[in-house]
Structure of Leucine rich repeat containing 52:
Amino acid sequence: MSLASGPGPGWLLFSFGMGLVSGSCPNNCLCQAQEVTCTGKQLTEFPTDIPLDTRRLFLNDNRITSLPAMHLGLLSDLVYLDCQNNQIQEVMDYTFVGVFRLIYLDLSSNNLTYISPLSFSVLTNLVQLNMANNPQLAYLHKYTFANTTSLRHLDLRNNGLETLDHNAFRHLLALEKLYLSGNPWNCNCSFLDFAIYLLVSYLDPSADELNATCVDPLQLKGWPITRVGNPLRYMCISHLNMKDYIFLLLIGFCIFAAGTVAAWITGMCAVLYQNARRRSSQDDGDDEAGQRVAINKGIFQTKVNSNPQFPQLI
């Protein structure tokens, strides 16, 4: 085929494919060398025209409310995603299913209220995760970080967390830094397992360590959560408070009362049984005596009848 005849269908398909990969840079964003920067562009939705070969994506300081898995999943080469300071409220199942190469993820300073247990299920290469400054985020499921086995830095500062399940960190063997300050930690007995985890995990100490403190109960308010394990162990395992003593006293009283009632009922049943047995014995004795009298009378009458010389009384 000569050049004069124009490009063939193969060339057109190749050009179309390259156009999809290259993409057209989103409006008001800067695209260069596999990096897209859309910082502070007042975006309300996730941009759909991002080049598919993008490796670093900056969406911080916008008003984006959600991360659509369909569009995000097209960016299979993405390793760095910054969504800081947006209005994202939820991260649903498999949101990041297509960006399994992701190493850095920043979801800080959003309006997060819910993180699905399977949100990060495919992010096995994730090294740094920032979810700080989401004051409405009060709960994390124990399987939230189950597959993020490469995670080294986890930032959970200034959220609404009151407790965490220690099993949530069971698979994070590479974890080096864990930031927990600014949360209203409730250091009750259900917090004990996580407090023990903090004691034995040998995480790298940081300036954040002493700022992560208990808010409740009152006797532990202000205690660093990294040092509350032993006091909690004493309070919850080896020490009984006034409520515990009252509870044990009530149990003892109930056992005593139940035993007393059972003994009284048993005694009454025994007395009634003995009375019934005695009455039955008396009735049997009367019947036996009557039978003896009748027999003796019959024998006597027989002797009288058989002996004509026996004096007749009548």
Observations:
- Residues 1-20 have pLDDT under 50 and may be disordered.
- The chain is about 30% helix and 10% strand.
- The longest strand covers residues 30-32.
- The domain at 23-183 is CATH 3.80.10.10 (Leucine-rich repeat, LRR (right-handed beta-alpha superhelix)).
